[in-house]
Design brief:
266 residues
Length: 266
């Protein structure tokens, strides 16, 4: 199972590098079901792994001049603040068991069920985009002025989601960059990796402040595996059918989400 986990980490790095998001949503299930990490700790480890991998991948886009730093920071600042506050204060404040009238929910169970719901939403959005026959959104809105207030709200929402579940949120970031800022898709991928790196790594500082224990050699080996996947993606990204890859990953995400819901609830 451990070896399978590292292989899955390589796959996660490849997907993150090719489509700029989505791959990070696999990190928590890999850590929980293959590596035996508890869900609350896995969300913290995920921030470090995803953030470092995204930073590694963003370097290539910087070199190609495909990262709009100003626009990325506009989105990233509220997201970074939200994810840091969530990890440093909100997550430690959530009790291990939550009681609502006669219903009692375990914290780790709640995290995994919410994660599965996020995966279902991610899969639905990716499938909708992959099967859409409409013209690219950038052709319609690229001449519009970006709505700064909407960008700030979207960034904060993504930050809270990242803080609670440890997912990079690329499937939320890329549509926002394309639809609100009018970025071409390739630029949005680079900006997404840059934003994910910033908010995930800074969010992980909140975990360090709460005294998270770093498991060795698990974390370094996971980082190496995801870096290998990201490096491979830089070599093959131009040769892959992006739409086909997105469909495959969406269906794969759907299957994993159903597995999590079934395992945790039944």
């Amino acid at each position: 199972m451990i070896i399978l986990g590292y292989i899955a980490a390589v796959l996660m790095g490849m997907v993150l590098g090719v489509i700029g998001g989505g791959g990070s949503i696999l990190t928590v299930p890999i850590l929980v079901y293959l590596m035996g990490v508890t869900p609350d700790v896995a969300t913290g480890y995920s921030l470090l792994i995803v953030g470092a991998t995204a930073a590694f991948g963003a370097i290539r886009y910087f070199k190609e001049g495909l990262v709009d730093v100003k626009a990325s920071i506009l989105f990233a600042v509220p997201s970074i603040i939200a994810v840091y506050l969530t990890r440093a204060f909100l997550m430690p404040a959530i009790p291990e068991t939550i009681s609502v009238q006669s219903l009692t929910i375990d914290k780790n169970l709640g995290i995994m069920v919410l994660f599965a719901m996020l995966m279902l939403a991610s899969a639905a959005m990716m499938l909708k985009k992959a099967y859409s026959k409409s013209a690219p959104a950038t052709q319609v809105i690229e001449n519009k002025q970006p709505n700064v207030g909407l960008i700030v709200i979207e960034g904060a929402v993504v930050g809270v989601v990242t803080g609670i579940l440890g997912a990079g949120g690329g499937f939320l970031i890329i549509p926002a960059l394309v639809l609100i800022l009018g970025m071409p898709m390739k630029n949005a991928v680079g900006a997404s990796l840059f934003i994910i790196a910033l908010k995930s790594l800074l969010g992980f500082i909140g975990d360090l402040q709460t005294g998270i224990q770093l498991e060795m050699p698990l974390l370094p080996l996971m980082l190496v595996a995801t870096f290998i996947g990201m490096a491979v993606s830089t070599k093959v990204a131009g040769k892959l059918d992006g739409a086909a890859l997105q469909k495959f990953f969406a269906f794969f995400t759907l299957v994993i989400a159903v597995f999590i819901m079934t395992k945790e609830l039944l």
